[in-house]
Design a protein that fits this description.
The protein is α+β, with helices and mostly antiparallel strands. Helix content is 42%, strand content 18%. The chain contains four helices and twelve strands. The protein has helices at residues 11-34, 41-102, 108-142, 197-203, and strands spanning 176-177, 211-217, 220-226, 230-234, 241-242, 253-258, 261-266, 273-275, 278-280, 282-284, 290-293, 296-302. The strands form two sheets. Strands 1-3-2-12-11-8-9 form a seven-stranded mixed sheet, with no helix packed on it. A five-stranded mixed sheet has the order 5-4-6-7-10, with no helix packed on it. Helix 1 packs antiparallel against helix 2 and helix 2 (41-102) runs antiparallel to helix 3. The longest helix has 62 residues, at 41-102.
């Protein structure tokens, strides 16, 4: 399945960027002209009027281009969900083949053929998804602060059935985003005579293990992201964890390793950050906390 991007005119992005640059240039000229208005007021008025007319004309053109770009973005929204679900479904198909092999339906040779075909399909679907995701990020960068338009939600793929007594399959290594894991920190300050135990805990350093955020894909575990001493979450690629949806701010939240453990901080995002269904500004994370932002849910796990 090749992603249906043929109807999306990517050249509109360049047009939008060029028109906005032209607008900024004319406004800069108008500001510079203001410094000289006292010298030749009549000429200044004519020049500024000309600049105002040109800015207004560009704004009219920009309105048309922005509307077409928004329409293409809505198409990309649907395509993004289709491609992401196609990746998930391809992985479930491989797990189904593994299960059927476990119960003896397939011979080893039959399974190897199916496994090879399934892995090729997974690689193709992931490549298509990454391409759509990258293109969608370009649109989101040129349409900051756009009204939130919910993306269609497709049903999650069924959970694979594991053989009786078998451990659930571990997520593939390539699904883990590996940041610098913080070292385990031992308590360094012991209680002294006359000091209450809670004071010792407040002054000492609490032992903290490394932790991960696990993407929740409709009840199924998705990619894992190891947390460092500082992990940023947002819409743009300069974040450690990228959530490329319009509901998520460019720099949406951060997770900081402190003496009391991992602390989640919302960075003033308009649509908010939620932990276990409640909107927060700052929250000390506990094992199995569910973090939601822009429709994406993560599960916090201590390792």
């Amino acid at each position: 399945m090749a992603p249906d991007v043929g109807n999306i005119d990517v050249s509109l992005l360049d047009t939008l960027a060029r028109l906005e640059a032209d607008q900024r240039s004319i406004r800069a000229l108008s500001e510079r002209a203001a410094w000289h208005r006292d010298k030749v007021f009549e000429v200044y008025s004519r020049v500024v009027s000309d600049y105002a007319a040109r800015v207004a004309a560009l704004e009219e053109r920009l309105g048309t281009v922005r509307q077409r770009v928004r329409e293409d973005l809505r198409t990309l929204d649907a395509l993004y969900d289709r491609c992401r679900n196609a990746v998930d479904q391809a992985r479930v198909d491989l797990q189904e083949s593994e299960f059927r092999r476990e119960i003896g339906e397939f011979t080893r040779e039959e399974f190897l053929k199916r496994q090879e075909a399934a892995e090729r399909t997974i690689a193709d679907r992931e490549q298509e998804f990454e391409g759509v995701k990258a293109l969608r990020l370009r649109y989101l960068e040129l349409l900051p602060g756009e009204p939130v338009v919910p993306t269609p939600q497709l049903p999650a793929p069924p959970a694979p059935v594991a053989p009786v007594g078998a451990a659930p399959p571990a997520p593939p290594d390539e699904a883990v985003t590996d940041f610098v894991s913080p070292p385990s920190v031992a308590t360094t300050q012991a209680a002294s005579p006359g000091r209450p135990a809670d004071a010792t805990e407040a002054l000492g350093t609490v032992a903290v293990m490394s932790a991960v955020l696990i993407e929740d894909r409709g009840g199924q575990p998705g990619a894992q992201h190891r947390l460092g001493t500082l992990t940023t979450v947002g819409r743009t690629p300069d974040n450690h964890i990228v959530v490329p949806v319009r509901e998520v701010s460019r720099r949406h939240a951060e997770i900081v390793l402190t003496e009391v453990g991992y602390v989640l901080k919302d960075l003033g995002s308009p649509n908010g950050t939620f932990v276990n269904g409640e909107r927060i500004t700052e929250h000390r994370l506990q094992d199995e906390d569910r973090i939601a932002m822009g429709g994406q849910v993560f599960v916090f796990k201590v390792r």
